[in-house]
Write a structure and sequence with these properties.
single chain; about 140 residues; alpha+beta; two-stranded antiparallel ribbon; globular
């Protein structure tokens, strides 16, 4: 059933001023990525499944969240605190600290090369979308 969400049809990719490209290879790669995440979500009990990108361990373009009222309410509380000033570029969400200090060593993101992720290189909440979805979910 989950595979029905995916397609192997060529996807039209276009941007203003750029010639149209059909991303057959891209579509196949994306399908593999989505299938990997879907299979993990089916087999495991964690709440959030995602792939890393060049910047952060949480790429919200490839993310599945298993719904939970408690998790939703915690997320809303974090957003309210951020609106009241509990976010900045150096200490992040809830002023938790620089990524190297705020992220527990048991977190899988430490297994990703320190030189690969912008989050680790900067050791600050200045990576792509750190103040938005990718930082919030991470």
């Amino acid at each position: 059933a989950s595979a029905a969400l995916l397609t192997r049809q060529p996807l039209p990719l276009s941007m203003s001023g750029v010639r149209r490209v059909y991303g057959v290879e891209l579509a196949e790669s994306l399908t593999d990525d989505w299938l990997h995440i879907l299979h993990c979500a089916e087999r495991r009990n964690e709440s959030l499944f995602t792939l890393a990108d060049h910047s952060t361990p949480v790429n919200t373009a490839f993310m599945i969240v298993k719904p939970s009222r408690q998790l939703y309410l915690q997320g809303i509380d974090v957003l309210k605190r951020a609106a009241a000033g509990s976010f900045n570029d150096s200490h992040g969400w809830d002023l938790a600290g620089r990524p190297s200090a705020a992220v527990p060593r048991s977190d899988d993101s430490w297994k990703i090369s320190k030189f690969r992720l912008e989050m680790w290189k900067l050791d600050a909440w200045k990576f792509v979308c750190a103040a938005l979805d990718q930082g919030h979910f991470f």
